[in-house]
Amino acid sequence: MTNAVDALAAGPVLGLPLPELWFALVFALLGTFLFLDGFDFGAGAIFARLPDDEGREAVLSAIGPFWDGNEVWLVVFGGALFAAFPSVYAGLFSRHYLLMFGILGALILRGLAPEMYEQRHDARWQRWWGRSFVAGSVLAPFLLGAFAGNWLVGSPRSLTLVGVVTGVAVTALTVVSGAAFLRLKAREALPETVTEIGVAAVAAYLLAVVATLGVLATRLPAGVDALLSPPVTVLVAASVGLGAGYAAALRRGANLVALAAAGGLTYGLIAVVGLLMYPRIDPATGTTVGEAAVSTLPLNLMSIGAALLLPLVVTYFAVLYSAFSGPITAEEAY
């Protein structure tokens, strides 16, 4: 037993760059949450634009089996950040505790509102809980985007220009995902307006990305040079292509392709944030990935655990989405 512990403490498993891999994993988990729960947020925003009860019930039925499971990825993201980079977790959450409480409050409101909405078929009751559902669905991604923007530039303040434009971009991106998901799941139960909302949202997202990059050019230490690095340039160009492909696919009714394009946009955005931040993981203090990571032994143990557990989590979600695949039917309810 002692020899095994000594071996794990002597160096990284298989000689892998574990701090960098955990940095990538943390952002991958954040991207997974933003994509999976993002189409739930987007569906909630689109809920506000639907004129009749049939359409609103279709939205709730479409996201009903998924939204609470999708939120697990936010917990996994926070857990991975705390486990691998505890000082960064402590610093971020203490500096931005108001944003954290805002995000949690919006998530609670988004989760509670549909449950309350279905309790009484009273016009006034459903109107107010419907508005609460929309508010939680819009505020959660906006505040999450503000958190990510402030993290990237190392701002200690909750309300900043980069936070606002990033929040707008993330909110628009969730509507992009939500429109594709609803077209895939609800189809004839929703009006063609949903397609037009998705197309408008992807245009708004790309414009918001341009605005965000413009603000970042004045806030990042490397300025424009960081934004013109080959990886970032390729990702931004790919986002424009994915946006155009998304709009074309949604209008053709290729809804699964449109949803995949929305996923590409989501992970592309997270990759840009990670690339602009690396090798720092806490720009507010200048702490690098290597400096913030825990020592070799716990990092090795966590890496082995993650290699065993993450495939099980992914398998669970594959089974969940397979079980509820296909469009919703008229008989289904939230």
From TrEMBL:
Keywords: Cell membrane, Membrane, Transmembrane, Transmembrane helix. The chain crosses the membrane at residues 21-50, 71-90, 133-153, 159-182, 194-216, 228-249, 256-281, 301-324. It is a multi-pass membrane protein. The keyword Glycosyltransferase does not apply. GO terms for cellular component: plasma membrane. It is found in: Cell membrane. Signal peptide: none annotated. It comes from the Archaea. This is Cytochrome d ubiquinol oxidase subunit II.
